[in-house]
Amino acid sequence: MLLLYNTAIRIYYVIIWIFSFFNKKAKLWISGRNKQSFIRQKDAIWFHFSSLGEFEQGRPVLEAMRQNYPENKIVITFFSPSGYEVRKNTILADAVYYLPLDTARNAKEFLDFIQPKLVIFTKYEYWYNFFKEMYRRDIPLYIISGIFRPGQIFFKWYGGLHRKMLGFVTWFFVQDDKSKQLLKKLGKEQVTVSGDTRFDRVWENSFAPKELPNIAAFKNGQKVFVAGSTWPEDEYLLAELITEYSGWKFIIAPHEIDNDQLDRLMELLPTKSSARYSIISNLNGNFNNLRVLVIDNIGMLSSLYQYGEIAYIGGGFGAGIHNTLEAAAFGLPVIFGPNYARFKEANELVALRAGFSINNAEQLSEIMNTLVNDAAFYSAANKKILAYVQEHTGATNSILNHIEKK
Fold this sequence. Notes:
Blueprint: H1 2-19, H2 24-35, E1 44-49, H3 52-68, E2 74-78, H4 81-87, E3 95-98, H5 104-114, E4 116-122, H6 128-136, E5 141-146, H7 160-166, E6 171-174, H8 177-185, E7 191-193, H9 197-207, H10 213-219, E8 224-230, H11 232-244, E9 249-254, H12 259-268, E10 274-276, E11 292-294, H13 301-304, E12 310-313, H14 325-328, E13 334-336, H15 344-352, E14 355-357, H16 361-373, H17 375-391, H18 395-405
Parallel strand pairs: 1-2, 1-4, 2-3, 4-5, 5-6, 6-7, 8-9, 8-12, 9-11, 10-11, 12-13, 13-14
Helix pairs in contact: 1-2, 3-4, 3-9, 3-18, 5-6
């Protein structure tokens, strides 16, 4: 199995290399790893994140470790360009790298350079050679905000190698009791149900969000519908909603912001009353005729929700919905497409009647109509969603208390 795993890793690299000739993300994935050189550290604290979403998820623990261990260097690695390119200059780390390809040689060389005191991986990422080498060197490895489901490879008959990876982990901090029970069935007792650190992150952000003066001027006291991380399937529905609700303003933050995707989106929207965020500074604050704003940069979304009344979360007509909690922390009822079953908080928000799944434009219009015209219904959803986020905070303290006792 290990031979098959190592072969698959190398094949994966070759596939990404081929794609790099015509795909920007693949090119960054390859060139970023080829160009980087490591700075030798000692007793570093190493955080690994798959992408930008996991960085924000693990950020409360990262910030706390930065504050509690000022004498230790912080090293961050990312698997994806979407994380590295946005956070490569973060002040929360002394060094930021792409995670090297998971080979035995790379694992040894990387650990020789950073010499970590402890390692924290967030949520999903499991790499056999890195995990094995950390275990061999007796380096504590923690998984935070972990979540496990019966369909994962760890619980399949052919998942022996992946089950072995779990044995290399010092401690699991998981989101729910179901994950704990699944791990216990595999004989893993080193588990704490701490919850999801994303709740701590979004709750903290809601009290001191970054102010966006141009967005405040765009809102100008009017009701705003914020659509985050949208895909084309979402945007076709939103275009119909914009036409129907002429008294509202809309902010759309697409998941993909390359020019082709932005041009396609702009063609769906009212020509005279829509604009990209990057050009509104040219309007000198005169946004009276502007109803639709398209965000053409990365990093603003978590602060945009403070200006909204209702949120739509994209991805539900594809692989799965994106982050609902950033909007929920500001009390916004959230609407999303049908593919949300794998997302614990989305299921819980639907059960609370604070989150709403739709299958088509008609259903989107129906729930919008209810939220807009039934004040009692809107108020109840607002209160439920705020209470839900607050009740689920505390994961960061649970994790830190455990690690600091070791």
